[in-house]
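Hi everyone,

Forwarding the result from last night's run.
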Amino acid sequence: MLRAGGSDRMPVAKAEGIAALEAMGLTAADAVRLLFHRIVTDQAFPLELKVPNAATRAAMAEAEAMLAERRTRFADGEALVADLDG
């Protein structure tokens, strides 16, 4: 069991955990809120969050850039459907 101040490893584990959460787009406070929400909802200890793979990270970055620039990837719905159809 990890205890605050009880281990020399704790600062490393915390830093590594925070880095992993940041890779998922979460803060430590976000993770705690999610944890407690799921515990209350499921009445069990939950969660399996993983760091997104390279393709997912690229898609997330593209989506964030598109939102920031207020642009779309396709000119209209027909172009989107054509892309989906291959």
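The chain has four helices and no strands.

Cheers,
N.
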